[in-house]
């Protein structure tokens, strides 16, 4: 890929070369900074997993943590608010110290993974006065970087929740409305990113920092979001990390005209085929074709582009996937925010449980879907699966899927022909 340099810069360079002018220092230092990135994004494929549900709770990843609380606890915010600081801290400490350990990193390495994306909430980095959240996850992040380094795995630190919530999803820490871009929330977000930069950007394992996960573009002020991305880039430039920005649900090809004058940009897009009735009705071949088409779009971009989240799932049946107490679109039980759903198929017992418990047809289809996505995403800069492990959602469990033979081993040994 030729995308490390913005096309506008290429044009300037060509012009300067044509008139025999010496290169200005700014452009030269830009190239040098590119060379100082810790991962060869242009040539090596990112093959990674997310460490979901570790530093930002999600009901469907660890249902046992939520089942031990009253029904009003739907996210980390209400978890801490309802249990109170002392009890919430006790339970979270025991989760942080056990959910992922150094042994997981060794196993990731043995499976051929070269990247982890680690979601973390602003409240763990630069807490706001008056928030109910408890602190402590940031210390475990520090441990994780050392474990990654010891196992030759690179890290993308992902700011997954920002003040007010950037998308209203439970995985932003707070389910409900979108309060980001109000008050001081954008400044607070930049402060959190600057602290992550100051504390961790120079760590040898930290190859990328993501400015904010899944900002809900259609509901946000996009001009302000673009300005935030530019400011965030400016604050991170020179730190030898790829500045990672999510496509904000604008479409993965919507960012080609953006980024003039910047470099070392990594575009993160998330590929799911389970949150829309049309996609949920598709058969396996349609899912495969859809993934292959998406990979071609990713590869057409002028910036390094990764699928920073994706899954083997073709239904939204996993318990609480759409939120605690919210049903599934697939079996017509989804009913949230004035949106209903119509029955497509039964979720009964089918997609909860374990990878080992999958029926043969599901096993084969999930395996085929995963392979196609890996082929598709490696046409671009690569992929980061969501997620390494969870308690009861087999199609979302990279560790067990690999052990059960549903993930190509060695990684990269896919049949390229599945994408035509
Ligand atoms: C993953 O594998 C472990 C160990 O065999 C098992 O205890 C667990 O239930 C599995 N989970 C899923 C979702 O497959």
From TrEMBL:
Coiled coil regions, renumbered to chain: none
Primary location recorded for the protein, binned into one broad class: secreted
Pfam families listed in its UniProt record: Cellulase
InterPro entries: GH (IPR017853), Glyco_hydro_5 (IPR001547), Glycosyl_hydrolase_5 (IPR050386)
GO biological process, one term: glucan catabolic process
EC number: 3.2.1.58
Catalytic activity: Successive hydrolysis of beta-D-glucose units from the non-reducing ends of (1->3)-beta-D-glucans, releasing alpha-glucose
Cellular location(s): Secreted
Ranges of residues in domain Glycoside hydrolase family: 91-219
Enzyme class: hydrolase
Cleavable signal peptide: 1-22
Entry-linked Gene3D superfamilies: Glycosidases
Chain ranges passing through the membrane: none
GO molecular function, one term: glucan exo-1,3-beta-glucosidase activity
A GO cellular component entry from the record: cell surface
Keywords from the UniProt entry: Cell wall biogenesis/degradation, Glycosidase, Hydrolase, Secreted, Signal
Family membership: Belongs to the glycosyl hydrolase 5 (cellulase A) family.
Protein name, UniProt field: glucan 1,3-beta-glucosidase
């Amino acid at each position: 890929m030729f995308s490390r340099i913005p096309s506008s810069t290429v044009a300037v360079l060509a012009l300067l070369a044509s008139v025999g002018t010496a290169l200005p220092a700014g452009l030269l230092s830009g190239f040098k900074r590119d060379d100082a990135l810790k991962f060869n994004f242009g040539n090596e494929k990112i093959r990674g997993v997310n460490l979901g549900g570790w530093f930002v709770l999600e009901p469907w990843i660890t249902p046992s943590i939520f089942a031990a609380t009253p029904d009003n606890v739907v996210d980390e915010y209400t978890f801490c608010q309802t249990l109170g600081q002392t009890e919430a801290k006790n339970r979270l400490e025991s989760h942080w110290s056990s959910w992922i350990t150094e042994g997981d990193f060794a196993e990731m390495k043995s499976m051929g993974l070269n990247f982890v994306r680690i979601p973390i909430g602003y409240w763990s980095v630069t807490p706001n006065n008056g928030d109910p959240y408890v602190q402590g996850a940031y210390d475990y992040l520090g441990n994780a970087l050392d474990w990654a380094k010891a196992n030759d795995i690179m890290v993308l630190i992902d700011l997954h929740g920002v003040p007010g919530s950037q998308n209203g999803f439970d995985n932003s820490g707070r389910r409900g409305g979108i309060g980001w871009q109000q008050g001081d929330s954008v400044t607070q977000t930049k402060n959190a990113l600057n602290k992550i930069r100051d504390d961790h950007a120079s760590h040898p394992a930290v190859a990328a920092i993501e400015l904010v996960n899944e900002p809900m573009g259609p509901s946000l002020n996009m001009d302000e979001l673009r300005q935030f991305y530019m400011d965030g880039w400016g604050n991170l430039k020179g730190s030898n990390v790829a500045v990672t920005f999510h496509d904000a649900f604008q479409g993965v090809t919507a960012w080609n005209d953006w980024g003039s004058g910047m470099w070392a940009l990594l575009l993160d897009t998330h590929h799911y085929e389970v949150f829309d009735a049309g996609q949920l009705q598709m058969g396996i071949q349609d899912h495969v074709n859809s993934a292959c088409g998406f990979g071609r779009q990713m590869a057409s971009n002028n910036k390094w582009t990764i699928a920073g989240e994706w899954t083997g799932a073709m239904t939204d049946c996993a318990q609480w996937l759409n939120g605690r107490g919210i049903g599934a679109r697939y079996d017509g039980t989804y009913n949230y925010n004035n949106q209903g759903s119509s029955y497509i198929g039964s979720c009964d017992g089918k997609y909860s449980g374990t990878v080992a418990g999958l029926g043969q047809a599901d096993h084969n289809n999930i395996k085929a879907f995963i392979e196609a996505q890996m082929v598709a995403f490696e046409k671009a800069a690569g992929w980061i699966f969501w997620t390494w492990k969870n308690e009861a959602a087999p199609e979302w469990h990279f560790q067990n899927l690999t052990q059960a033979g549903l993930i190509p081993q060695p990684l990269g040994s896919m049949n390229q022909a599945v994408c035509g």
